[in-house]
Amino acid sequence: MYFRERERVVVMEGKGIEHRMVTVNGIKMHIAEKGKGPVVLFLHGFPQLWYTWRHQMLSLAANGYRAVAPDLRGYGDTDAPSSFDSYTSLSIVGDLVALLDVLGQDQVFVVGHDWGAIIAWHFCLFRPDRVKALEPGEMEAEFARTGTATVLKKFLTYHNPGPVIIPRAKGFVPDEPITLPSWLSEEDVNYYATKYEQKGFTGGFNYYRALDLNWELTASWTGAQVKVPVKFIVGDQDLTYNGPGAKEFIHGGGFKKYVPFLEVVVMEGVGHFINEERADDISRHIYDFIKKF
């Protein structure tokens, strides 16, 4: 895989995924796009990039949709403000609302994973008028309420690491051989490594640093319902699904209380990175859901 500059649009060779920079909410944002038709907005998590949705983008574009996947604020080729208080859900959703305006879209389908799922939930709470339907992965909103996330946020705040740089995969020789999972190729690792070598992890860490502030700013939405249609997909091996109280909340009626138009799918034999581990299955789930609307 390689990239070439052409009229300020970068095309992934052989894939037809186009890349461009747009101005949203006071920052420059990198977005990847493919296809024509109703827009499906893909939101990545940590420590991922737009690239985590590459399989779904190709599949949805082939089925008559316009797939759009940004590098969220702080990631990849998108701007990364230095202060952690620029990384609350209010700021991130603000970026996305502005992105929809740039795309000329009143409403879109939203798909989120990991931190992208948290942002997707908040997008539906803040601006349900801009969302046709939501398909998030994992119970990330529940995870964000646990002590684990708060402890991690405090560690990152007090120790305040500077930009963390990882070596490029081709130049890194580990002490022990590294066996990649079947769903992750050396080509994939090289792409991630190249991007994080340039920017580091500080932007992604800032989402955790802003957790307490995030809760303070979103207090007005406590107990609010997500009233857009939602298809929630989780792997049965995912740690967030197997965390304390998660299954009881998801299957015991608590989840449905806050998300009345909810469909739950538990996929067997799959872990956290569900959209890459079972890429074809997730693409089919997304298409089967959104084609109803």
How many strands appear in the DSSP assignment?
10
CA-based gyration radius: 18 Å
CATH topology label: Rossmann fold
Fraction in beta strands: 15-25%
Order of helices and strands: EEEEEHEHEHEHHHHHEHHEHH
- pLDDT averaged over residues: 83
Identify the overall geometry. globular
Can you give the helix content as a percent range?
A: 25-40%
> In CATH's first tier, which class applies?
Alpha Beta
Family: Belongs to the AB hydrolase superfamily. Epoxide hydrolase family.
Protein name: Epoxide hydrolase a
GO molecular function: hydrolase activity
Pfam family, one: Abhydrolase_1
Please sum up the structure shown.
Helices cover 37% and strands 18% of the residues. It is built from 12 helices and 10 strands.
Task: Describe this structure as you would to a colleague.
The strands form 2 sheets. Strands 1-2-3-4-6-5-7-8 form an 8-stranded mixed sheet, with helices on both faces. Strands 9-10 form a two-stranded parallel ribbon. The chain has a single domain, classed as Rossmann fold. It has 293 residues and is an alpha/beta fold. The two termini are 35 Å apart. Helices cover 37% and strands 18% of the residues.
Key descriptive features of the protein:
single chain, 293 residues, alpha/beta, Rossmann fold, eight-stranded mixed sheet, two-stranded parallel ribbon, 37% helix
